[in-house]
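PROTOCOL LOG
Step 1. Enter all chains and additional molecules of the complex.
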Amino acid sequence: MTAPVGASNGNAPEGYDKYAYEPFAVTVDLAVFTVRAGTLQVLLVERGQEPYAGRWALPGGFVLPDESAEEAAWRELAEETGVTDVPGLHLEQLRTYSEPGRDPRMRVVTVAFAALFPDAPVPHGGGDAAQAQWLRFNAIGPLAFDHDRILADAHERVGAKLEYTCLATSFCPPEFTLGELQQVYETVWGTPLDRPNFRRKVLATPGFVEQVPGAARLTGGRGKPAALYRAGGATALHPPLLRPTTEGRP
Amino acid sequence: MTAPVGASNGNAPEGYDKYAYEPFAVTVDLAVFTVRAGTLQVLLVERGQEPYAGRWALPGGFVLPDESAEEAAWRELAEETGVTDVPGLHLEQLRTYSEPGRDPRMRVVTVAFAALFPDAPVPHGGGDAAQAQWLRFNAIGPLAFDHDRILADAHERVGAKLEYTCLATSFCPPEFTLGELQQVYETVWGTPLDRPNFRRKVLATPGFVEQVPGAARLTGGRGKPAALYRAGGATALHPPLLRPTTEGRP
DNA sequence: ACAAAAGTGTTCTTGATACACCCATGG
DNA sequence: CCATGGGTGTATCAAGAACACTTTTGT
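Step 2. Run joint prediction.
Step 3. Record the structure below.
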């Protein structure tokens, strides 16, 4: 029941006073991932005040009175990174965290989002983006609030999404090699993949990637130049590309 | 950033007045499904007041100051159905809907949940459960607020979850036949399945179901009595049980 | 005897896995 | 010429799809 009052079930609070209750603050928290140099990185900000002063935290902020959580998330992402209109940037709602004690100051309900950032563009620093920084996912100590859990949930979600969607291209620049795409999978999953099979799988999925006609690029300085690809129009991946040795994940 | 104020990014509102903003109401909405007599049914309540007076709506209500959204959802479910401690009942967070105009009276952010109810126990009526009723999913007209969308999202989620979890047993009574389990899949997905293959698939997944030793039951009055099964301990389904002709779902 | 529902077996095809192997480029 | 990374081919195996068939009950 959405209605705050006068709901047809008799359990909603009586009266219709907007201010009758201790107010809830509604915020968004963002788990922004990127893959750079073969490592998984997360965008974090350092807290200046108590509680958790000096700790790292997920970027985020209030949902303003006239915007949805999605709009707030996009706005915050732009403010933290200083980047607007990143092509191929993916942002999706993760879940909502509402435990009463999660912020010691007041009741804060946060809608968490997971975002995939392509490599390269403007990591941090410039402009009004205060001190947002990319940190290695594996080297992240305890975060403020319940952000460790949010980050873990986001990581699991991103890993799962790579299996059955074409989302991995959101981690890549507009043009990329199949080796780079494979590195995205290997970095997020933390497991090596068989190159020939990965290649077949990707190319056999219509609309996953499309080749840039004549282009080629040298990847590591050495070796044969690799063909370049762009993201195709497909979003789903059928059949899925499963993580190796996947037993009993809920 | 969870902090309402003094956050390390400069974008959070200044000051630390809990009442400085138009307050957000936080509610939960429940999409409760069951499979009865080969049809998919949804628990709905009829609204008594404006807006949307006389329309059907998802059951739900406020998140109280000292409970999480999950606790509120369990409480509302118990209140609407009059049932507590239903074994095998499954409830999970779906997503949060926060568009500013979704309730015309005030700003209401709702955390939506999807629940699977086993067949049979206490449909409605008794006790304080006002007028919650089971309606056929296929015969549901336009609902109040944005509940059509929430219900559609919940249905899609439930359908997807049947593919890769053992969740279907949550639709069944404690003891059930494989034919009944198959009917759950067919009802939710709306597609017929091959019985021999379904059977093999279910039995080949360790921990999905376990047979009740000597028991058997006559299903439709005629035919061979079917063996009875209980839900096993497993939660995940590897490899998944995919919907037929599944092309291009995001 | 027949219908209806449970349960078993078999074939065919697809997709995943694990390799071996060739190609192009820089040092 | 060799190390490095890109790209191709192939044999093997497990899983899913389709369907024929048997068994047990009620009418």
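Step 4. Note key features.
Helices of chain A lie at 69-81, 147-164, 178-189, 195-204.
The CA atoms of residues 102 and 146 of chain A lie 6 Å apart.
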